Amino acid sequence: MNHHHRKVLHSLFDHPLSANIDFKQVESVLEELGATIDNRSGARIGVTLKGHTAAFHHAGHSLSKDEVVQIRKFLETCGVTPADYPV
């Protein structure tokens, strides 16, 4: 995982929550972690990582704080933490 991916991963877990994270960057981090991503109907994508699956809204803009929380919870469920990937 390169430095840019690690920075995006850490920003997902930052306190206070960041609402300035580009979804394309998050998608790239998920793929780097080994996730498979498939397009679903509408503006949704399915993400499968380490046996866990979730659906997210494919935002054409920066993620909202609620979306950041959803992605953070999914990563925690998959056992991914920023401590595993120091900046």
Strand content: 15-25%
Helix content percent band: 25-40%
Number of individual domains: 1
The total beta strand count reads 3
CATH class designation: Alpha Beta
- Whole-number radius of gyration? 12 Å
What name is given to the CATH topology? Metal Transport, Frataxin, Chain A
- Terminal residue distance: 10 Å
Report the mean per-residue pLDDT as an integer. 91
Helix count, per DSSP?
A: 3
> Order of strands across the biggest sheet?
1-2-3
Helices and strands, in order, run as HHEEEH
Any low-confidence stretches, pLDDT <50, length ≥5? none
- What best-fitting shape do the alpha-carbon axes yield? globular
Q: Structural class given helices, strands, pairing? A: alpha+beta
Sheet with the most strands?
A: 3 strands, antiparallel
What is the CATH architecture assignment? 2-Layer Sandwich
Please give the oligomerization state of what you see: single chain
Describe this structure as you would to a colleague.
- The protein is α+β, with helices and mostly antiparallel strands.
- It has a single domain (about 5-80), classed as Metal Transport, Frataxin, Chain A (2-Layer Sandwich), CATH 3.30.920.
- Helix content is about 40%, strand content about 20%.
- It has helices spanning about 5-15, 25-30, 65-75; strands at about 35-40, 45-50, 50-55.
- The chain has a three-stranded antiparallel beta sheet with strand order 1-2-3, with helices on one face.
- Strand 1 (about 35-40) and strand 2 (about 45-50) form a beta hairpin.
- Helix 1 crosses helix 2 (about 25-30).
- The protein is globular, with a radius of gyration of 12 Å.
- The model has no long low-confidence stretch (mean pLDDT about 90).
